[in-house]
Write a structure and sequence with these properties.
Layout lengths: L1 E12 L2 E12 L3 E5 L6 H9 L6 E6 L2 E2 L10 E4 L11 H11 L4 H15 L14 H13 L5 E5 L7 H18 L2 E6 L2 H7 L2 E6 L2 E6 L1 H6 L4 H6 L6 E10 L2 E8 L2 E6 L12 E6 L4 E4 L6 E10 L3 E8 L2 E8 L8 E6 L5 E3 L9
Parallel strand pairs: 3-8, 3-9, 6-7, 7-8
Antiparallel strand pairs: 1-2, 1-4, 4-5, 9-10, 11-12, 11-14, 12-13, 14-20, 15-19, 16-17, 16-19, 17-18
Helix pairs in contact: 2-3, 2-4, 3-4
The structure holds adenosine-5'-diphosphate and magnesium ion.
Adenosine-5'-diphosphate binds next to helix 1.
Length: 361
């Protein structure tokens, strides 16, 4: 049974449809990430699950209960926000223990639970401090502790790492992943950061303008995006998108790129899809599917447009007949301005409809 089940939830603010028939399932123990650009409705959905916003229609179930009409305090969920929302006058110990105090637990039981949570989050030395005496990362650990101590059915996180600097964000991200693996709780985590989504999720829900675009494992979303929006949103460096014409000839399916007086015909493995007469198609290639080659007969050639060293490897922007491709290479093999031969894993190429963005093959 799903621990969380959101079914056809709709929510508008005035004329603006913020959630449009959204459905999301989280299995027991899942780490579900809601991913999408700013303003797509992620926080609205999370607040609706928490009971902080009413929904216009649809159903939200937690465990075996329909909680759609229940107030937040009866839903047995704990939420961690981007802004830590700690009580400034309380110590860390009091902040973490607060939900238990509200529940009426006695002092000894509260202390025992706070100590347990502090040990999990490695914040025992901070227990007597006030929030203002903590760094951003420590404050967010305390906020997570306050959620953890409640032992809820469901954890909700709304961009909890967005206020932290890059190094700390990476540390705390790894800690949240370990925490999830250790306590095996069900989590719903909102972010606009695709790296966070890829590294944390067991399941990613990609949203755009109040619509769910795709639901899948990180692997499925990366390797098998359903449309151009998802393909572009996931992956760093980004997916390369080449405009061209797909055609079906005697030799099978091929993809033709033209520009600057050159032409390349890339022959594609057979697929069930057939192009129409115009054949206008966008080919999507992940950075690892394009390589610089020394072969005397490369599939085509390119000019090295930009080299961005990252240490062990370079991010290289290529100009292929006037179109841009971004790849990763071992450090130092591409020189800016050079002409290079390239090879392409054409069996991994994805084809999209340039007008609708839909995946074709
Ligand atoms: P996200 O968390 O994905 O950035 P939100 O869920 O916060 O997006 O917002 C989705 C959309 O709903 C945005 O266009 C936002 O402006 C709008 N919105 C959010 N809250 C309100 C509100 N209380 N009143 C009117 N519009 C709102
Ligand atoms: Mg938000």
């Amino acid at each position: 049974m799903a621990q969380l089940s959101v079914r056809n939830v709709t929510k508008s603010y005035g004329a603006v449809n913020v959630l449009n028939q959204v459905s999301v399932e989280a299995e027991e123990g899942a780490f579900v990430v809601l991913l999408g650009p700013s303003g797509c409705g992620k926080s609205t959905l999370l607040h609706a699950i928490a009971g902080l916003h009413e929904i216009d229609s649809g159903e939200i179930r937690i465990g075996d209960r329909d909680v759609s009409g229940l107030p937040a305090r009866e839903r047995d969920v704990a939420m961690v926000f981007q802004s830590y929302a700690l009580y400034p006058t309380m110590s860390v110990r009091e902040n973490i223990g607060f939900p238990l105090k509200m529940r009426g637990l006695d002092k000894a039981a509260i202390a025992e639970n706070v100590d347990k949570v502090a040990a999990i989050l490695k914040i025992e030395p901070l227990l007597e401090r006030r929030p203002r005496e903590l760094s951003g990362g420590q404050r967010q650990r305390v906020a997570i502790g306050r959620a953890l101590v409640r032992d809820p059915k469901l954890f909700l996180f709304d961009e909890p790492l967005s206020n932290l600097d890059a190094a700390l964000r990476g540390d705390l991200r790894a800690e949240i992943k370990r925490l999830h693996q250790r306590i095996k709780c069900t989590m719903v985590y909102v972010t606009h950061d695709q790296i966070e989504a890829m590294t944390l999720a067991t399941k990613i829900v990609i949203m755009n303008r109040g619509d769910v675009q795709q639901v899948g494992t990180p692997h499925e979303i990366y390797h098998n995006p359903v449309n151009l929006f998802v393909a572009r949103f996931i992956g760093s460096p980004p997916i390369t998108l080449l405009q061209g014409k797909a055609q079906l000839g005697a030799a099978g399916l091929s993809f033709v790129i033209m520009g600057g007086g050159s032409r390349a015909e890339l022959s594609l493995p057979d697929r069930s899809w057939k192009p129409d007469d115009a054949g206008e198609t966008v080919m999507g290639l992940r950075p690892e599917n394009i390589r610089i080659t020394q072969s005397a007969q490369p599939v085509t050639t390119a000019i090295v447009d930009l080299v961005e060293p990252t240490g062990p490897e370079d991010i290289v922007t290529l100009n292929i007949m006037g179109q841009r491709a971004v790849i990763r290479t071992p450090a130092g093999i591409a020189a800016q301005g050079a002409q290079v031969g390239i090879e392409i894993d054409l069996d991994r190429a994805m084809l999209f409809d340039p007008a609708s963005g839909a995946r074709l093959a």
